[in-house]
Design a protein that fits this description.
GO terms for molecular function: metal ion binding; metalloendopeptidase activity. This protein has 29 helices and 14 strands. By secondary structure, the protein is of the alpha+beta class. It folds into four domains: about 150 residues, Metalloenzyme, LuxS/M16 peptidase-like (Cytochrome Bc1 Complex, Chain A, domain 1, 2-Layer Sandwich); about 30 residues; about 270 residues, Metalloenzyme, LuxS/M16 peptidase-like (Cytochrome Bc1 Complex, Chain A, domain 1, 2-Layer Sandwich); about 200 residues, Cytochrome Bc1 Complex, Chain A, domain 1.
């Protein structure tokens, strides 16, 4: 599977990617979750005229590799390394290792087979490696011929977009509902309407205390009151910050995060950062062709992922106090290249990393335009899946400088600016290409004191890694003798602040905004300023936010309107509160906004009129702590989480104070937060929905909305 589809230059993906008239993303692969294994290849963005050609190319690619005798040794070596790391890890992102192992158990146990078959792989893996040493890639050829080339049991499915499909579905649904009378007697239909009405009314009634008392509770006393200490070890080596984190077992691997400072990038160009990242990981270096780079990555790692990390940091002045709303001018802005490798291959991995970071990103002008279009398509699809995040970023950009930066990087603003580049007929793409290259150079030439090398692994592996670390810092980092050391972000405002102070960027306009997409669901949000600069924010505020989320918003949006979820987000850095509804099929903007507007009154009824903490407060404390602690981090995330705590200046003392305030939340805390919410300032709306929904809302209520269209791909 990896040699066929694992990288952009693999046997199947190579002939398909990079040709705009075919498509832009290959998906699929080997699915072993069921008794009948399947292998699929999918291509997104194919023009109708090329569907048959794409199908033939896939078949010919598979057949062709069997006819020439398989793959060369470098390709096989890269695939072996990738699968070896995957088997060692057995974890995926934030999923606990035990959950992933249990899923492997079910893949056999569900069909009456030995549940341990998918867990024990060492003997079979070593046997396969011996066969490959003897026979090379020909060991795969008979399997491929039988299972793929000569297999006639296959299906070709074509999916094409259709203008007006959402409206057709709505009309068909309404027609189906209207025609129900044809299949029911008048009495049955009347009974159905009555039962539906009764159900809706029943959902509005709060559960009685006796019923709620029967639900098992986690005693607050049983929650660990102490935060876990940050065990990251820091040192400065040749001006580079080196961070190491020891874990009990890293399965023979080291997890490597290498970060560089972004402060030399012109603020006007930061929206091009994701474009640069996409190009950097899909281009040649000074030493390697694009294909050679992919092979080197596969040979020594499980992949390298660039990640932007934009954090508020606490200003360190004479009057500083923890958890006080600040003016947002102090930011930590980094790009990290995250990856993992076998401990005995760390030196080779760091060499690959050096080539990509300091000598990569060598791409022709035409690739810039392709990368912009591909990124726009990814954002366009992501809006449908995660529209609430885009609404939240839009709101936060109106009230905080960090929010404005993130919205320029990953929000509607970024999509609009990329669209302007593509849609403007007179766009000089030579100039755009040069701007992207300037972004890359600004990262590469920064001073070493803005760089961080973080490595996580077992103690012995970390000790053995010291020579490779020194070699990388000494010879692997580009040396710019003219570089000026970066200042401490806690002491000095970020250089982007000067650009933000201009009329063009001084936060986003405080307007009510409707963002138009042709979606079957809607995303609504309302936010505002609750705490002023210099005001202390208590950890109990996050408990009240969770109380609103678990109770009032869940009842109104999820139970009564059928939304997928609803959130409350409170920021002590910026002093803001945002209410969000996620994938609401009801799509009634006025009704949703009324729910947000009634939050204060609903809280007043349940809190201000009671002498003790309201029902649900206990659960809010527990769920707030649960969200704060999360699941037990996997080895690849432990060092990363500690590193982020360091960058955010989130010391153990600060985290302990916040935790104590959560666990000690009182009725008085609830009252204070509720009063603050009732008196919030400059509230605004951001919503993603259809043009028809916004027009209807404006006609019914007179609501003034600034309309933004984003469906541009």
């Amino acid at each position: 599977e990896h040699m066929l589809m694992g990288t952009p230059e693999s046997t199947i993906t190579g002939p398909l990617l990079g040709k705009p008239y075919y498509g832009d993303e290959v998906i699929g692969g080997l699915d072993m979750r069921h008794q009948q294994w399947t292998f699929t290849v999918g291509l997104k963005g194919v023009h109708r005229a090329h569907v048959k050609d794409v199908e033939d190319r896939i078949k010919n690619a598979i057949k062709g590799i069997t006819e020439i005798g398989g793959w060369d040794s470098d390709k096989v070596s890269g695939a072996i390394n990738t699968i070896d790391l995957r088997l060692r890890d057995q974890s995926s992102g934030r999923n606990p290792r035990g959950v992933n192992l249990m899923n492997l158990v079910f893949s056999k146990w569900n069909y009456g087979k030995d549940p341990t078959l998918r867990l024990a792989y060492t003997k079979a893996w070593n046997s396969l490696l011996d066969d490959i040493d003897t026979m090379g890639s020909s060991v795969f050829l008979d399997l491929m011929r039988e299972s793929l080339v000569e297999n006639t049991h296959y299906a070709v499915i074509q999916l094409f977009p259709k203008t007006g499909m959402v409206k057709e579905h709505e009309e068909a649904e309404q027609q189906r509902i209207s025609s129900m009378k044809e299949y029911q007697t008048e009495a049955e239909f009347t009974k159905l309407l009555a039962e539906t009405s009764e159900l809706k009314e029943a959902q509005k009634i709060e559960d009685p205390p006796l019923a709620l008392a029967k639900i098992p509770r986690v005693p607050i006393e049983s929650i660990d009151r102490l935060v876990k200490p940050n065990i990251i070890k820091l040192r400065v080596q040749d001006e580079v910050l080196v961070a190491t984190t020891r874990v009990p077992d890293s399965f023979g691997m080291l997890f490597v995060d290498f970060g560089l400072d972004l402060r030399l990038i012109d603020f006007e160009d930061i929206f091009l950062l994701p474009v640069m990242m996409k190009l950097m990981m899909n281009s040649h270096t000074e030493a390697w062709t694009e294909e050679q780079m992919y092979r080197q990555i596969s040979k020594y790692s499980a992949g390298i992922e660039p990640v932007l990390q934009i954090d508020d940091v606490r200003p360190r002045d004479a009057d500083y106090e923890a958890f006080v709303v600040n003016d947002g001018s102090h930011l930590s802005t980094k790009i990290f290249f995250r990856g993992r490798c076998r401990a005995d291959k760390l030196g080779s991995y760091l060499n690959v990393l050096s080539q990509i970071v300091f000598y990569g990103g060598q791409f022709v002008h035409s690739r810039t335009k392709e990368a912009i279009r591909a990124l726009m398509e990814e954002i366009d699809v992501d809006i449908y899946e995660n529209g609430a995040e885009y609404v939240d970023r839009r709101l936060e950009a109106r009230y905080s400088k960090q929010g404005l930066v993130i919205e320029q990087l990953y929000g509607i603003s970024q999509l609009q600016r990329l669209a302007d580049l593509l849609n403007e007929q007179n766009t000089d793409f030579d100039y755009v290409h040069e701007r992207v290259m300037n972004v890359r150079r600004a990262i590469q030439i920064g001073h070493r004191n803005g760089m961080i090398l973080s490595i996580t692994g077992e103690a012995k592996l970390l000790e053995d890694a010291e020579d490779d670390i020194t070699q990388f810092i000494t010879n692997g980092i580009f040396e710019n003798s003219d570089a000026v050391p970066f200042t401490n972000p806690n002491l000095d405002p970020h250089p982007w602040m000067e650009s933000m102070a201009g009329e063009k960027y001084y936060l986003a306009p405080l307007v009510n905004e409707g963002i138009i997409v042709p979606a079957a669901v809607s995303f609504f949000g309302k936010g505002g300023t609750v705490y002023e600069t210099g005001q202390k924010v208590s950890g109990s505020g996050s408990v009240v936010a969770k109380f609103i989320e678990n109770g009032y918003l869940f009842e109104k949006f999820v139970l009564q309107q059928g939304a997928e979820d609803a959130f409350v987000r409170i920021s002590y850095h910026h002093g803001t509160v945002r209410f969000l509804a996620f994938r609401d099929p009801n799509r009634d903007l006025i009704e949703s906004l009324q729910v947000f507007d009634d939050v204060g009154n609903a809280l007043s009824r349940s809190v201000l009129n009671a002498e003790t903490l309201p029902d649900g407060a206990h659960e809010a404390v527990v769920t707030t702590i649960a969200e704060l602690d999360g699941v037990a981090p996997q080895p690849d995330e432990i060092g990363w989480e500690f590193l982020i705590e360091f960058l955010q200046d989130d010391t153990s003392e600060y985290r302990q104070l916040w935790r104590d305030e959560i666990l000690n939340t009182t009725r008085a805390d609830f009252v204070d937060v509720i009063k603050d919410i009732l008196e919030w300032e400059n509230p605004t709306i951001a919503a993603i929905s259809t043009a028809q929904e916004f027009q209807q809302a404006q006609n019914i209520s007179g609501l003034e909305l600034e309309i933004t269209r984003v469906f541009i791909v």
